[in-house]
Amino acid sequence: MDSIQGILTFIDPVLIFPYRLFDNPMAGWWVGTFCLAAWAVLIGEITLAIAGKINRSAVSTNLDDTMYYHEQSMKAKQAGDEKAYKGINKLANEAYGKSFFLLMAMGMAALWPAFFAVAWLDQRFGNIGFTMPAWAGGIELSFTAPFILIYICLRVAWSRIKKKLKPASAA
Fold first, then answer.
1. What pTM does this model have?
2. What stretches pass through the bilayer (predicted)?
């Protein structure tokens, strides 16, 4: 845990900067938390792109193997060879499992910065709570709830922006 604490202390001056842009502490907190969530999304996307480049060949091979074994198992089933069907289908399931978990691991690569951000928020603002208005139940939320809400909104917005940018970059 000391190494994570050291990293958080090292990057603290950069992360705290947006929080100090405004004299109003509430405005500074919201702007700073928005910037922190945006940085988490950006760094996560960069990590995902790097992981995608590194694993492109393995993912492609596993997906090709999955399709090949699936097609072969269907041919064996149509031919009535149940033993061959089960054996080849097992290979297809193994290839699918490899590609599935590799893709899941790559997807997780995009999320690690959010956990660092929450750890830093805890170090800086761990004792702060947000009391909801009476009409919303009046409950108190920790600093993580607003961060998670902002992070999810930015992730969704980025995924929509990325979809719109893809056709333009393919041309």
1. 0.76
2. 27-51, 100-121, 133-154
